[in-house]
Amino acid sequence: MESTAEKLSTMSIAGDDGWASSAPTLRRNLQILSPDQIELARMLLLEGQTHLFAHWPEAGVDDQNKKSFFEQVSRLNASYPGGLVSYIKNARNLLADSKAGKNPYDGFTPSVPSGEILTFGDDKFIKLEEEGAKEARNAAFVLVAGGLGERLGYKGIKLALPSETTTGTCFLQHYIESILALQVASCKLSQGQCETMIPLVIMTSDDTHVPTLKLLESNSYFGMKATQVKLLKQEKVACLDDNDARLALDSNDKYRIQTKPHGHGDVHALLYSSGLLTQWQKEGRKWVLFFQDTNGLLFKAIPASLGVSSTKGYHVNSLAVPRKAKEAIGGITKLTHTDGRTMVINVEYNQLDPLLRATGHADGDVNCETGFSPYPGNINQLILQLEPYIEELKKTRGAIAEFVNPKYKDSTKTSFKSSTRLECMMQDYPKTLPPSARVGFTVMDTWLAYAPVKNNPEDAAKVPKGNPYHSATSGEMAIYRANSLILRKAGVQIADPVLDVFNGQEVVVWPRITWKPKWALTFSDVKKKVGNGCSISQRSTMAVNGQNVFLDGLSVDGTLVVSAIDEAEVKVTGSVQNKGWILKHIDYKDCSLPEETLTRGFTIDKVEQLEVNHTEPGKFEFRC
Ligand SMILES: O=c1ccn([C@@H]2O[C@H](COP(=O)(O)OP(=O)(O)O[C@H]3O[C@H](CO)[C@H](O)[C@H](O)[C@H]3O)[C@@H](O)[C@H]2O)c(=O)[nH]1
Fold this sequence. Notes:
Blueprint: H1 4-14, H2 24-27, H3 35-46, H4 63-78, H5 83-99, E1 108-111, E2 116-117, H6 123-135, E3 139-144, H7 171-189, E4 200-204, H8 209-217, E5 229-233, E6 237-238, E7 240-242, E8 249-250, E9 253-257, E10 259-260, H9 266-274, H10 276-282, E11 287-291, H11 298-312, E12 316-323, E13 331-337, E14 342-347, H12 349-358, E15 373-385, H13 386-396, E16 402-404, E17 415-420, E18 422-424, E19 439-443, H14 446-449, H15 457-461, H16 472-489, E20 493-494, E21 498-502, E22 505-509, E23 512-515, H17 523-529, E24 535-536, E25 541-545, E26 549-557, E27 559-564, E28 568-577, E29 581-585, H18 595-598, E30 602-606, E31 610-614, E32 618-623
Parallel strand pairs: 2-19, 3-4, 3-11, 4-5, 12-19, 20-24, 23-25, 24-26, 25-27, 26-28, 27-31, 28-32
Antiparallel strand pairs: 1-13, 6-10, 7-17, 8-9, 11-15, 12-15, 13-14, 16-18, 21-22, 29-30
The structure holds galactose-uridine-5'-diphosphate (GDU).
Galactose-uridine-5'-diphosphate binds at residues 144-147, 203, 205, 261-264, 292-293, 328-330, 346, 348, 378-380, 425, 427, 452, 454.
């Protein structure tokens, strides 16, 4: 293929009027285009995209459509670092590598890296939590929520799904309340010397932007100031029809280029171009924490892992959990090149097995004697130190190593079954870092840190036995399990769980215990809030909503719901005995029920409960 420079010189020989000669249909329409649009047209021809105009009728016909075609081209050009010229060039290179079967890890040997392994509740963990909670006021949070969630098949946005149905708190509300609780706790720990608001950025896409904004607005931003939350919308990227990176036209609208999501890696370029990073730097912030749309446990892991970043001075800290072989989470891997270079990086779940097989591990991605893969599982919660992050982005403008995954029609690899596009992942950020960068990771127990909602009931039920379901059912049950285990560790007598099956998935059902983040963010908080002699039976439900609620000598066998305003200090004691709330099985094929309910396979039958509600300031003791 002719290079751009060669083409340019041919065109200049052809003269100013000659540049469009390869596309006569376009040439006859130049008079309807603005100078900027003509520039874009010229760029497209130079980049071998003549076919885009082949069907264009004479000027005067479909002119509006032709202009909107260029409006789209302008958007695609502006939203990619280096514009469409770079996109097409990168695509050609990656498509050529893919056709040649080039291994992206050529020359690298994988080995198991060493990182920080934390044990919930021990002295080190408690110290790190305290350090992290203190540091939180210097942080900014970035939630990537542009994904459609195709595997889950839910029609709404995932952030609006309940994380658990005892209180019905949706993921976004839980995340915001956790950040607000961190804000309060962090300011308290810094001797009240601060009035900071921790910023939250949400990356949306055309698929999620409007409903995300609506969810925030109709709930008064769940208690955040509207100015504290910024939405950055990622654009999709152009689809490609062939190995020459010819842009694909939409089969339903020949004046539109087909587009698809570029992946969560867009977050870095968007943050860079938004100017927020330098603003945060001026405000004295030190950390940027990235997280995903449906992990109801995540904030239980945040304080300690931020503590690790702070004490170790990590530029990059990835949160990880023990990984089951073939689980759909990337493996954190040390890669050593034949030339001596090394990096610690996520190897995505579909690449780990081929990489291992190609480097002498005949069995590929398998569990070792611990029952887990030796490679820790990346949960895509990244903590980046702001200053080195800005320095790196100044060089890269946030561009992240991309990949392409075309589905070829046959072994000649000359045509695709359907159009493809370039993709990128946010966890690939460290790939461009110099060897001096401090890149580490923190491993925590899965029960504490990771329970995403990604799979629909049918697919979840097919997950190999022993591997996690990652469904709405398992995500909710994981919250009850974590809360039960934390209270147990704090000395509460929690009854053993029972096994049950919902939507074809066997899960362990603990008492349905929930609390608002402001009640307790860290294990030390929990220990301060529970006294001696507390117990909760397996069939029980307990929901705590109040900053200063203390449980002491309390036994629950049934349902207890406690709420109190921040100014009320309430000690709850005595014995709760009622019919409680009962989990009722439902079938996910029963169309009369809402989708949110169907996906988890149960409803909660609220038969009887004790409600304690304090709306007046003061100090109270409530004996049940
Ligand atoms: O174009 C996109 C695509 C996705 N997302 C967001 O990115 C997050 C992750 O998307 P997926 O849940 O689809 O991610 P995967 O399951 O494919 O995998 C990712 O999350 C896993 C853990 O949940 C592992 O860490 C894995 O290595 C990592 O790539 C979600 O919040 C999603 O909304 C975007 O913002 N834009």
